[in-house]
Amino acid sequence: MLGPGGQNGQNANLNDVLNSLPTVADAPFNAHQRQHDPACLPDTRVDLLQEINNWADGQDELSIYRLSGLAGMGKSTIARTVAIRYFDRNRLGASFFFSRGGGDVGHAGKFVTSVA
């Protein structure tokens, strides 16, 4: 049965379009290839993780949180920990983990279509 204005047909068409977009299967934090990638150990990075949680749960205008640091400082591990926590709460919209020299995860060419 169609909703007002044929919504079910429009939703089906939108889903067909979204499903046809090129995506990167190994980009999400929970991709099979990433199953052994580390998360923060318990009771580590507590202050930083709380700061990120406060930002994510906040109502201010800041829509981007920039996590920066030198190579090897644990940025990916921190991001993966946050992604896991919000996924477990059904609050993660999408994730895309870049990796140098990693094929499609080594550049932003399919980023937008992957998170759509």
Core attributes:
116 residues; mainly alpha
Distance between the termini: 27 Å
Structural class: mainly alpha
Order of helices and strands: HHHH
Portion of residues in beta strands equals under 5%
Unreliable stretches covering 5 or more consecutive residues: none
Number of helices: 4
Number of strands: 0
Report mean pLDDT, rounded to a whole number: 90
The biggest sheet amounts to: none
Shape: globular
Helix content: 25-40%
Q: What Rg, in angstroms, do the CA atoms define?
A: 17 Å
What does this structure look like?
The chain is mainly α and 116 residues long. The protein is 39% helix and 0% strand. The protein has four helices and no strands. The protein has helices at residues 7-20, 46-57, 75-88, 111-115. The protein is globular and about 50 Å long. 9% of the residues are buried.
